[in-house]
C-alpha cells in the first residue's frame, strides 16, 4: 500500500477557511485554515494566524474601526475569491500561489484607485478648488544678533497606505507554505530553506541570534530620556541559545531587583514605604511589575548614562561583563523624536539635536560604551546623508539597522537593488500583503549586497510560531521577538529552542558569526567581532 501510494495524485487545495480570531493583546486579527484533497479525501492540513499591522490613526476609535474593517474584508476575501481562485492548486506550488495572490491584490489596488478617482472627481464638482498652501517656514537661528536661515530638513515621507483586507494575502501565502511543508513531511524552516535554495537541502543551518528586549522605555513617561525606546540583549555566539536565554534571564532578575530597590518600578520598596501606614496589619504584597506589550519591563530614565551604568552594574553583580558575556542593542525609534517645527530630534525633554549632531552623539556613545553592537533606527529614513555618515563612522564597530526607517517591503526592491538609505541591515516584518516568495527574493538580494536580515515581530503579536521558522529558513542574522514574557512571545522562543535541538541532533547546526561592514573601506574584508571588544581610546 505504501509503495502504490507514491503514484497517487499529489494533494491539492480544496478549501480555504478564513475567520476572525484574537491576537495576543485581545484585538481582532485573521486566521486562515487550509484543507487539501489527499488520496480522494478532504483533510485539514494546517492553519495560520497573522498579526494585524497598520499605520497609527489619529484616534483609538479610528484604529478600532480600521482594524475591524480590515479583518472583516480579509475574511471575505479568503472565504470567497481566494477560496475559489486557489482550489485545485498543489499546496507545494508556492511560487504559482504567490503569483496568483499578487495578481489578485494588484487588481484590488487598481479597483481602490478607480473608486478614489471617482470620489475626488465628484467632490471637485461640488466644492471649489482650495487655495494653495503657503510654503513651510524655514527655521532661523540667531547668531551674534543676526538671524541665519538653516537648511530645512527633508520632510517626512507619506505613510504607505494599507489596503483594507490586505492581511488576507500574507496569511494565505504563509498558510500555503505551511501546508506544503506538512504535505512534504518536513519542518517549515527546512521547507522555506529548500524554496530559497532551489530545492537543494542546505548541509548546515545557522540559528538567528535573538535580540531579547529587556526594557521598554516609554517616550511619554515623566522621565527625561526619549532617545531609547527598547534596550535589547544579544548573547555571544559561543553560547547555545539555551545558555544565552538562561543568562538573559539572570540579568533580567538582577535588573528587576535593582529597579525595585531604587524605586523605579510601581510597587517597589520605595513606594511601599510611602503607603506603609495604609497597609499596616496586612501581609506585604509582592511588587507589581509592569510588563509592556513587548513582553518586558517598562521603565524610564533621565539620561542615557544612567541607564547604561545600571545595566553594567546588574551584569557585574552576577559576575558578567558587558562586551564579553553579553552585548546590547538599542532601538532609538528616531522617527518618533523629530520635532518638525524646530527641525531637530528631541533626545531628552527640552534637549534637541540636528541630524548632524545626532551622528556625532552616536559616535561618542559607541566609543564610550563599545558593548552596544547594534543601533536600530538611529535616524529617520529621510536623513539619507546622515545615514551614510554614521555608517562610514561606525559601520565597522556596530550594526546600523533600519526598521521603521526602511521603506515598506513592497517598495524595498527596485530592479534588484534595495531602495533604502545606507545601512548595515533591515528589519523585515511579515505583515499585510507580504508573501513568502517576496521574503525569499528580498533576503537573497540583501545577502548579495552584504546587508544583514533581521526578522521582527509586529507589536500586536499572536501565538503563531511560523515567524521563527521563516527566520531560520531564510538565514536571518537576528530575530527580534520582544521580551521573555507574554505567551505569544515566549512560544516563539520555545520554537527556536526546539529548532536548535533538532539541528544539533541532525549535526547540521552551524555557529553564528557577528561580522561588521567597514563602509569607509568597502574594498576591505568584513571585520569579525573579537571575543572582547576594544576599550575606547583615552584622550
From TrEMBL:
<dbReference type="GO" id="GO:0006096">
    <property type="term" value="P:glycolytic process"/>
</dbReference>
<dbReference type="InterPro" id="IPR000941">
    <property type="entry name" value="Enolase"/>
</dbReference>
<feature type="region of interest" description="Disordered">
    <location>
        <begin position="260"/>
        <end position="284"/>
    </location>
</feature>
<comment type="similarity">
    <text>Belongs to the enolase family.</text>
</comment>
<feature type="domain" description="Enolase N-terminal">
    <location>
        <begin position="13"/>
        <end position="192"/>
    </location>
</feature>
<keyword id="KW-0456">Lyase</keyword>
<feature type="region of interest" description="Disordered">
    <location>
        <begin position="119"/>
        <end position="157"/>
    </location>
</feature>
<dbReference type="InterPro" id="IPR036849">
    <property type="entry name" value="Enolase-like_C_sf"/>
</dbReference>
<dbReference type="GO" id="GO:0000287">
    <property type="term" value="F:magnesium ion binding"/>
</dbReference>
<keyword id="KW-0324">Glycolysis</keyword>
<protein>
    <recommendedName>
        <fullName>phosphopyruvate hydratase</fullName>
        <ecNumber>4.2.1.11</ecNumber>
    </recommendedName>
</protein>
<dbReference type="GO" id="GO:0000015">
    <property type="term" value="C:phosphopyruvate hydratase complex"/>
</dbReference>
<feature type="compositionally biased region" description="Low complexity">
    <location>
        <begin position="121"/>
        <end position="130"/>
    </location>
</feature>
<comment type="pathway">
    <text>Carbohydrate degradation; glycolysis; pyruvate from D-glyceraldehyde 3-phosphate: step 4/5.</text>
</comment>
<dbReference type="InterPro" id="IPR029017">
    <property type="entry name" value="Enolase-like_N"/>
</dbReference>
<feature type="domain" description="Enolase C-terminal TIM barrel">
    <location>
        <begin position="204"/>
        <end position="517"/>
    </location>
</feature>
<dbReference type="Pfam" id="PF00113">
    <property type="entry name" value="Enolase_C"/>
</dbReference>
<dbReference type="InterPro" id="IPR020811">
    <property type="entry name" value="Enolase_N"/>
</dbReference>
<dbReference type="InterPro" id="IPR020810">
    <property type="entry name" value="Enolase_C"/>
</dbReference>
<dbReference type="GO" id="GO:0004634">
    <property type="term" value="F:phosphopyruvate hydratase activity"/>
</dbReference>
